[in-house]
Amino acid sequence: MLNIALFGPPGAGKGTQSERLVKEYNLFYISTGDLLRKELAEGTPLGEQAREIIASGGLVSDEIIVQIIEKTIAENTQAAGFLFDGFPRTTIQAYILEGLMIKLNTSLTCLIDLHVPEAVSIERLVKRGKSSGRSDDNAAVIRNRLKEYREKTLPVLQFYKDKGVRHKVDATRSIDDVHGDVLEIIRNEQNKRLFNIVVFGYPGSGRGTQGKALADRFGLEYVATGPMLEQEIKAGTEIGARIEALYASGELVPDEIVVPLIEKRLQNASNVRGFIFKGFPRTLVQSYILEGLLRKHDASISKVVEIEVPMLELIRRLDERSQTNRCMPYDSSTAKIVKRLHEHEQKTVPVIAKYSQLHEVSKVDGMAPFDVVFQRIVDLIQQGDR
Known about the structure:
This protein has helices spanning 14-25, 32-42, 45-55, 62-74, 91-103, 118-132, 139-162, 175-192, 207-218, 225-234, 238-249, 255-268, 284-295, 311-321, 334-358, 370-384; strands spanning 2-7, 27-31, 81-85, 110-115, 166-170, 197-201, 221-224, 275-278, 303-308, 361-365. It is α/β, with parallel strands linked by helices and 386 residues long. The chain has two domains: 2-192, 3-Layer(aba) Sandwich (Rossmann fold); 197-384, P-loop containing nucleotide triphosphate hydrolases (Rossmann fold, 3-Layer(aba) Sandwich), CATH 3.40.50.300. The longest helix is centred in the C-terminal third of the chain and has 25 residues, at 334-358.
């Protein structure tokens, strides 16, 4: 997910750059002023709380603002990310945003500081006031706004500079030149971060073959629990013997076996662009574990894909596979196939529902030839990775 905070004094051109970025990256634009006015107009509980504070001459609290922002993000998970304009305005709000991003299993990609000298800000705003008739674009009001920016907002720049995500852009140049620099910053930041995909789908949906092909296509490390567990069996380890017994009974391998293998795989991977996960997480518990494992690498889930195939077709595919050398341990009988499909429905479908609230889950029709399904998934991934 691409999350950008756009900074700059009044007159720096934030509005113009915001419009372009929102369109180019499919971002949802978040302006605290706009959101607050929307809540007031709709008469929501948060809006009514804010109205009472405003009526009494007070400033709307951070507690209300952050609830409005969290609500807005939760309602717009289809966006590829968020563009924050006017938030955070203070270091306290910067800490709030950081906590909110962690709660939503993401982080701020970068803060872009559109820098212009005060003299340029005043000149631009006075000129805008003459053409637009805006009463707040006069010299006295402008100087007060710039004073507030210096005193309250500039410390936020230092907060993000210390975190290594603040980037300064000379905004005195043409709109296109400034935009070119902004795009370069975003591309560089995206390249620094691990790109992690989780592929879901019932057994027989083709997630394994698609996952391997996607790993090759995007230069990702393919992480699948199946091959790692099979390796333990082939090595004849004590863990392998336990896994083999579980396979024979059609049971899922417990977390105390799976999680250390996943963690070791992540730790041993070097110079990778990211990971593609197949078969993990299978449960809600594993979904929280994965978040923790990725956070150790200063990473999060970038994309979630679910391959959809009708149940009867799944059974047909698994039964057909059971007659070949590609037979999986849970394919060996009809009873095991049904049990495995039922376990996916009971334990993994709730994980997908959870991710639907936190991320956009891209659903792909798996009822087509391999190449067609593959291209559908590639297109979806590239839409969110622009």
